[in-house]
Amino acid sequence: MVLVQKKSEHSSSSSSSIDGRIIAVKDNICTTDLPTTCASEMLRDYVSPYEATVVQNLKRAGAIIMGKTNMDEFGMGSHSIYSAFGAVVGPSPPEDPQPRSAGGSSGGSAVAVAMGMCDAALGTDTGGSVRLPASYCGVVGFKPSYGMLSRLGVVAYANSLDTVGILGKDHDPRDPTSLSPETRKRLRENLSKSSYNKASLRIGIPTEYNVTELTPAVREAWETTAQTLLSLGHRITPISLPHTPHSLSSYYVLAPAEASSNLAKYDGVRYGHRSAADRSSPDNILFAPTRHDGFGAEVRRRILMGAYALSSEAKENYFIQAQRVRALVQSDFDAAFVQPNWLKMRHKDKRAPPRDGGQGRVDVILAPCALSAAPLLSDVRAQRSPLDAYVNDVLTVPASLAGVPAVSVPVWVEGGRNPEGRPIGMQVMTQFGDEGVLWEAAKILE
Ligand code: GLN
């Protein structure tokens, strides 16, 4: 956490639900009066000349931006330990002071909310970076539909997956949306109104999410949540999202590929860190030392992986193949939901009266967000391969690949297989643009 900012002169309507709310902002979202470092040596002193649209919208609505939060460098990580400023430490009860993972990459935002330092926080979620920390820290983490919140002024990691997400204590972090009101209205008409009946949601349990790595505590929380929903009169159906097992490999080809291209601009010429070795280079075209010193090891690994996936010899087998898998993951979701995918509808149908048009049977999908409750930081650090951390994202990347909205809601199932009563994040997913139903379901879970 850095400075506390004065309330913006631009703040207007005192009737806004955000007026006077204290908001923390992940440090890859540009602010003009605070640095935007992306937790990288590369951008240690960087102050953006312009402000992200989401920050501007919040300020206009009267929010107070309390500071910037620590994260995994450029959003790459699952435990917020890959930061030039040191690791984020998750919240622990006084009786168990062992440091735990806050989740990543928006770990700082999740901790700020969990510790009551702010009313809500902005994060970014490319493959789970809002939902995983929310799950570990026991707060609500919302990844909107892809494209729902503006990314102008948000430092790109993987453009086709990046979303701005919101972390809050409860289900209503007051979406500071920048989507045009007209598109919002059309989406609402086409989706939510069409096919769901609040009294009884059709809830799908994707069998492929029941992976062997799920800890007993998480499996129990999932079962208990489904039972509770059933007893409240909702319908529970097992469903199949058959390409789920391939999502993780697809994501870890596509995200680094896009990252390798996005991060090419950090060469120390226009802005950011520049190594002395490069400055003294006689032929001045070298930037290898700058990039070596400016980026942490994990970011360099992603750049190498991505550049390889895009190279002529590997492109067909990796990048193109991963894109095909992504399309299949998307169709899995379309095949599951009653609601049609608005993005895939023909232009004239988008304006037609709402109707059920999807191929599937459910309004909502319910699954855990993470394999376990927050692990000890010492266990995370003891992992032999950095790839071990990638596995943590197995339950969050499918929604990212499909672009559908997802929210992680904490449940506390004490006793039984979760003797310590640690929070466990339950993930609710709905069709693209169907945030209305998403929040209905999230509210029931709380
Ligand atoms: N852990 C994932 C990664 O490292 C997701 C990160 C994110 O959503 N920004 O890529």
TrEMBL record:
Its main location: mitochondrion. Keywords: ATP-binding, Ligase, Mitochondrion, Nucleotide-binding, Protein biosynthesis. GO terms for molecular function: ATP binding; glutaminyl-tRNA synthase (glutamine-hydrolyzing) activity. Residues 88-107 are annotated as: Disordered. GO terms for cellular component: glutamyl-tRNA(Gln) amidotransferase complex; mitochondrion. It is found in: Mitochondrion. Its EC number is 6.3.5.7. It catalyses: L-glutamyl-tRNA(Gln) + L-glutamine + ATP + H2O = L-glutaminyl-tRNA(Gln) + L-glutamate + ADP + phosphate + H(+). Residues 12-436 form the Amidase domain. Gene3D superfamilies: Amidase signature (AS) domain. GO terms for biological process: glutaminyl-tRNAGln biosynthesis via transamidation; mitochondrial translation. PROSITE patterns: AMIDASES (PS00571). The active site is at K26 (charge relay system), S105 (charge relay system), S129 (acyl-ester intermediate). SUPFAM superfamilies: Amidase signature (AS) enzymes. Allows the formation of correctly charged Gln-tRNA(Gln) through the transamidation of misacylated Glu-tRNA(Gln) in the mitochondria. The reaction takes place in the presence of glutamine and ATP through an activated gamma-phospho-Glu-tRNA(Gln). Belongs to the amidase family. GatA subfamily. Subunit of the heterotrimeric GatCAB amidotransferase (AdT) complex, composed of A, B and C subunits. This is Glutamyl-tRNA(Gln) amidotransferase subunit A, mitochondrial. It comes from Morchella conica CCBAS932.
